[in-house]
């Protein structure tokens, strides 16, 4: 390897700048995207079209158990005599998501979900640990 006269050998090695840290706007978008996909999946669990275990990495244990319990209750109601009960949570669509930063590693978000019968609100709290966002509170109206 030849070095141009007057330059040190170290100058020939390319130097790459450090990766920039995520800005707050990027972080807000990331949290909204995670919230949207988590809410969509949770409502699909209630509809019976998605297994609850698919959310095991995203929800903490308490939220996962509560969602599983509510899905079982929804299935039991759907098998009853009500004509509309079988259509609960069918074809859900997340219409909007809003997130609010509580601290550096905590966000609270809300979502509006529409299905065949109604429009409902969903609230969730996301906490970051070891660079992974987990939902610690999930309330589906």
Notable traits:
141 residues; alpha+beta; four-stranded antiparallel sheet; 2 helices
Task: Tell me what the structure shows.
This protein has 141 residues and is of the alpha+beta class. It is built from 2 helices and 4 strands, in the order ααββββ. Strands 1-2-3-4 form a 4-stranded antiparallel β-sheet. A hairpin with a 4-residue loop joins strand 2 and strand 3.
Question: What topology emerges from the helices and strands here?
Answer:
Layout lengths: L23 H24 L13 H18 L14 E11 L2 E9 L4 E11 L2 E9 L1
Antiparallel strand pairs: 1-2, 2-3, 3-4
How confident is the prediction overall: mean pLDDT?
Answer: 84
What is the tally of helical segments? 2
N-C termini distance? 68 Å
The main sheet comes to: 4 strands, antiparallel
At a glance:
Helices cover 30% and strands 28% of the residues. The chain is of the alpha+beta class.
């Amino acid at each position: 390897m030849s070095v141009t006269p007057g330059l040190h050998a170290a100058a020939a090695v390319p130097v790459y700048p450090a990766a920039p840290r995520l800005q707050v706007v990027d972080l807000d978008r990331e949290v909204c995207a995670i919230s949207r996909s988590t809410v969509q999946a949770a409502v699909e669990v209630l509809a019976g079209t998605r297994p609850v275990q698919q959310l095991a990495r995203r929800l903490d244990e308490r939220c996962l158990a509560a969602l599983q319990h509510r899905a079982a209750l929804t299935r039991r109601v759907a098998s009853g005599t009500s004509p509309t009960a079988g259509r609960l949570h069918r074809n859900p669509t997340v219409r909007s998501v809003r997130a609010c930063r509580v601290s550096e590693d905590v966000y609270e978000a809300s979502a509006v979900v529409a299905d065949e019968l109604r429009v409902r609100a969903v609230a969730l709290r996301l906490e970051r640990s070891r660079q992974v966002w987990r939902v610690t509170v999930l309330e589906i109206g």
